[in-house]
Q: What sequence folds into this?
């Protein structure tokens, strides 16, 4: 690729969907990720996101080092994403202490496992964080998915998910599980809840038809 890569322009289909449900095939992508449980407003979650961003920016700023990664290109750091589930499915989703999460940030295609190991060691020395050792560099593929842009508060997401499920029902798709992915395009520290933009997505499969 040439020129600076901006995910909102160059990967618009995955990060700037419409405010109505759609089906999309999400390919394999490289991520740095970390898993955990509990309230996302609590300290452990903040430590997890801090570890993610520290290592992500080590990769981003590596062009200033004496050992620039092969194939490096300029790019905008990708947004934070989260896959959410419940620890105990008998409890309501409103119980934030019962949440199970996997948060992640997509990485540029030039990042290799060997380079990741180098940036990891550099980050441990420069910006120690108790959760750095829990980070993983992996490739994830969502495949066929239903997604839409949710505008507003996180607490109002159930209405958007209901629209997505109704769309799938009407168009021959079935939701594969209760797991869902959220992509945070707004900084909650700077954006009022009513104006937040969050991509919602869940995996689907074609509905079976009787022969």
A:
């Amino acid at each position: 690729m040439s020129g600076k890569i901006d995910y909102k322009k160059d990967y618009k289909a995955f990060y700037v969907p419409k405010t109505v449900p759609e089906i999309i095939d999400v390919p394999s992508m490289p991520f740095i990720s970390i898993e955990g449980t509990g309230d996302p407003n609590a300290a452990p979650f903040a430590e997890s996101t801090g570890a993610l961003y520290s290592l992500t920016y080590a990769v981003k700023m590596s062009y200033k080092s004496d050992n620039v990664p092969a194939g490096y290109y300029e790019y905008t750091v990708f947004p934070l994403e989260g896959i959410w589930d419940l620890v105990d499915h008998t409890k309501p989703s409103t119980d934030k202490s019962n949440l199970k999460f996997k948060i992640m940030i997509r990485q540029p295609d030039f990042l290799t496992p060997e380079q990741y190991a180098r940036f990891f060691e550099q980050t441990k020395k420069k910006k120690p964080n108790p959760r750095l050792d829990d980070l993983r560099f992996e490739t994830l593929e969502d495949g066929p998915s239903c997604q839409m842009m949710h505008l507003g508060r996180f607490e109002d997401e159930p209405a958007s998910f209901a629209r997505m499920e109704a769309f799938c029902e009407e168009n021959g798709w079935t939701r594969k599980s209760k797991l869902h992915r959220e992509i945070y395009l707004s900084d909650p520290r700077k954006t009022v809840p009513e104006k937040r933009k969050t991509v919602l997505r869940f995996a689907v499969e074609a509905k079976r038809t009787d022969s």
In short: The mean pLDDT is 94.
